[in-house]
Amino acid sequence: MMYPYQIKSIEQYQEAYQKSIENPEAFWEAIASHFTWHKKWDSVLSYNFTEPKINWFQGGKLNITENCIDRHLATRGEETAIIWEPNNPDEHTRVITYNRLHKRVCMVAQMLRNLGVKKGDRVCIYMGMVPELTYAILGCARIGAIHSVIFGGFSAQSIADRLEDAQAEFIITCDGAERGNKNIPLKSVIDEALIANKLVKKVVVYTRTRTPVSMLKGRDVWWEDEMEQAEHQVEKNGVVSFPAEPMDAEDPLFILYTSGSTGKPKGVVHSIAGYMLWANYTFLNVFQYQVGQIHFCTADIGWITGHSYIVYGPLSAGGTSLMFEGIPTWPDAGRFWEIVDKHQVNILYTAPTAIRSLMAYGLSYLVDKDLSSLKVLGSVGEPINEEAWHWFSQHIGKGKCPIVDTWWQTETGGIMISNLAGITPQKPAHATLPLPGVLPVLLDENGFEIVGNKVSGNLCIKLAWPGMIRTTYGDHERCKSNYFSTYPNLYFTGDGCLRDENGNYRITGRVDDVLNVSGHRIGTAEVENAINSHSGVIESAVVGYPHDMKGQGIYAYVIFEESNHDHQLTKQDILQTVTRIIGAIAKPDKIQFVNGLPKTRSGKIMRRILRKIAEGEYNSIGDTSTLLDPTVVDDIKKTAL
Ligand code: WTA
């Protein structure tokens, strides 16, 4: 099988790009016609970026699970959809064919219906990386329920906030999750998250770790029991069926929470048809996926990368997706490479932070590894530094695998700027060129477009693309003010960007108060709020600083109520507080106790100064004359970490 819209040469890329910008409707209509629809669309695209209101394939009806599963059954039913590699290498791998995936997803859909879940209901999924997580996601999509996956590292408090925001009535979780030598008691975290919750009616618990759990009568049910019952309902005389709900093209598919520069995380909403096309098109073109290849995306499904490139992208293409439960450094730092050899992985898609950390372990973990199955390598989540790029290329790709440096965001649904593996030129540390459908522009501080090459500015997108964010759940105004108000008629990414002499893009990092720590997005305001909830903290300010391993580290300046407290102990308390309120991923790397913060006369904290101090750049702090009290800067410098 060949993929009809896979770009095979640089000329084809240029042609596709041109078409997609000149006539996006004709371009995407041709691609959409390769999918399974219950009813054809009336119009391909109508949109405005002021409300914003984005409409792709209006009037069309479809179900994404038929496109990810059913349409492959006739020809690829016994081919592998998912290979699951357990945390513990001594445990058995699981291989899930498309036929099996179909049956499981039908069973989950039936189970959800039995439990009272209806089209449009929000189902929160808080599970480890087990195949049942994929079944749960697709089971929701089959009946038209909106899934909202929460990463297993978030705290009970974070979950409680998200449940409330999404007004979720159903949860699917596990008793526990295994990650490295840690066992995370997921169900008991859910119990804590539900203490003050009045909405959740049912919690389904899948048994993974056999950790003792408490099951609340009437609310909590076992996955295994419910699935057994559902199996009898969906299977008749050896034939499995559960009719997929015909959904409107613009019905929401999922909500995924992500951090912004202000307030609590917001629920990014993606809708069905556009997201499906985008995940599929970008997957096929960026990675140049070929039928039968094994695609290993190392992300967690709790993040957008896992949604698009473990679940929806590969499955919509009838591909084989490898799902790994564990972490790259357990039982040792050779685990990824061992998995590549064991399953003959062809495409490895990972994050710069993982590459840097494995690089630091040296080459000894590579001596007995073959890695010759690899054809394409990918990087995502943060800027990749040249050293990591070269190490990845040389030691993992053996100099023969193209590396795709893929820039995108939770809000964009899929990859936006990237080279196409082996088709368009690569350049270390550059995401290079926009995909067809993506029209990037750079803006200056005053809102003027910067034209020409060898320039830098704030990255915006000018045209609507199928996979773009539709709204922020329950608060459309927030979507508008966050992304569509900074520059009229443009989507603002929050990233700074260079364009080189050949028109290649290089993302330089966030220009707002969002940090990127080990590829995880964290808002400074969120961390400050968490720190400030410690009873002894008067005020705090959080900034990022360059960190060798994590990309960015978190630096917190804290004003504490007494000056003669035990600093070491207080730091531990603050870390504990942040872990409890957000999760361990948001723990500051450095905490400096200060007597005051640099504020303007109107009371605004001058983060620019704090960033300079955190970076150790004392000589380029700049003008401090507008500060209410310029002497605080010297005080802070004296005790800087
Ligand atoms: C950053 C992850 C440089 C960027 C898919 C963006 C990158 C944020 C790259 C989105 C890349 C992602 N090069 N920076 N290849 N990919 N970023 O929502 O700052 O978790 O805005 O989505 O990660 O993070 P998110």
Salient structural properties:
binds 5'-O-[(S)-ethoxy(hydroxy)phosphoryl]adenosine; 5-stranded parallel β-sheet; alpha/beta; 7-stranded mixed β-sheet; globular; 24% strand; 641 residues; 31% helix
SS summary, helix count: 18
Mean pLDDT: 96
How many strands?
33
Each distinct ligand: 5'-O-[(S)-ethoxy(hydroxy)phosphoryl]adenosine
Helical percentage: 25-40%
Low-confidence stretches: none
Tell me the β content.
15-25%
Largest sheet: 7 strands, mixed
Silhouette: globular
Describe the protein.
The chain is α/β, with parallel strands linked by helices. Helix 6 crosses helix 7. The radius of gyration is 24 Å and the shape is globular. The model has no long low-confidence stretch (mean pLDDT 96). The protein binds 5'-O-[(S)-ethoxy(hydroxy)phosphoryl]adenosine. Residues 258, 303-305, 380-383, 405-410, 431, 493-495, 507, 509-510, 516, 521 line the site of 5'-O-[(S)-ethoxy(hydroxy)phosphoryl]adenosine.
